[in-house]
Amino acid sequence: MDFFTMLGCPEAAFRQADGEWQASVTTALRDNFAHHAERNAFYRAQCEAAGIKPSEISTLADLTKIPLLPVRMFKQPDAHVLMTAPLTDVELEIRSTGTGGVPSVARRDVTTTTRVMTGILAQYREFFGVGNGAGLFLCPSTAETPEMGMVKAFNVLNGLLDDHAYIVRDYAFDPAEALARLEGWEDAMTRHIIGPPFLVGRLLRFLELEDIRLQLDPDSLVITLGGWKRYTGESISREEFNSKIETYLGIPAVNVRDMYGMIESNMLAVECEHHRKHVPPWSYISIRDVENTDIELQPGKTGVIALLDALSTGYPAFILSDDVGEVDHTPCPCGRTGQSVSFRRRLQGAELGCCAVSIEKFIDSQEIVAECEVPQPATTTEA
């Protein structure tokens, strides 16, 4: 199946026979590799140093030969050298600041932006089947944070919904407002909740403290993106998270869907009903040995996640991340084929660096400031 057919027919692309999937993803990535090796002087130098040419990529096993860009390069002041497209063609500039405060900058040109929007929309339709309803977005709007990749990815859902509301404004979150929105949509449309796990968790904590138990709709979804570790380093338990959603929102765990991605890559892996995050067929994840990242590990082995993405024409989106996890190539009960990915943790010494971390850290700092304010004495006026 060719690249553009995969984007336009996700229901078929995610269900290719194993041999067909291997051939199609290899062709898509080889062609994209050739595009950057030919047009990008910086990347071509990396290819020459590695002694690899696009013509040498013919099988899935050959994809490990494609030179990778360490994710830290997107934090460098001269990150523009990574660009294949001219800066004048850049349409989107996505940033992510983690606990270290140094932003990653990933620039998308016009062609990449069109492909990414098409791909994400196709995946939402494929995995969520959403075509109407209301979305409660527990995150800022794109108007407030146009540079945040997580918010951009969530925003694509708006085109599939009849109504929506963004609850985080000026980095403040009011769970009572979220509850009022959900109650306002009751009996009118299917209600979905979208946001990073920590903010969904704040809503659940509010409902628990107030002993409020909602019963949302049979097809309601909770869709999350942004990682399961807080900026403090504390992990969020997925099992406890799902249990509280069932208890306080009345949504079964099968309708809780997490996604995995990073702003430097266009790859977005979306969970199916069996909670396996499926890698789209225009992308490939290679798990590398922690001690020697030139070595690719077999499926099921834990190592450093490398993401190879065929959507990007702006820069070579062949990224060696700071994430650790595994890929699974066994058949999924949902019927989709190809790879699924599991994220485990960050590499030791790597900072937490996603949009959700930045939002949570800022919200917490604002709440601490508000709690520490000293009340001013009331003034009196002489009669």
UniProtKB/TrEMBL annotation:
<feature type="domain" description="Acyl-protein synthetase LuxE">
    <location>
        <begin position="28"/>
        <end position="360"/>
    </location>
</feature>
<dbReference type="Pfam" id="PF04443">
    <property type="entry name" value="LuxE"/>
</dbReference>
<protein>
    <submittedName>
        <fullName>Acyl-protein synthetase</fullName>
    </submittedName>
</protein>
<dbReference type="InterPro" id="IPR007534">
    <property type="entry name" value="LuxE"/>
</dbReference>
<dbReference type="InterPro" id="IPR042099">
    <property type="entry name" value="ANL_N_sf"/>
</dbReference>
<dbReference type="InterPro" id="IPR053158">
    <property type="entry name" value="CapK_Type1_Caps_Biosynth"/>
</dbReference>
<dbReference type="GO" id="GO:0047474">
    <property type="term" value="F:long-chain fatty acid--protein ligase activity"/>
</dbReference>
<dbReference type="GO" id="GO:0008218">
    <property type="term" value="P:bioluminescence"/>
</dbReference>
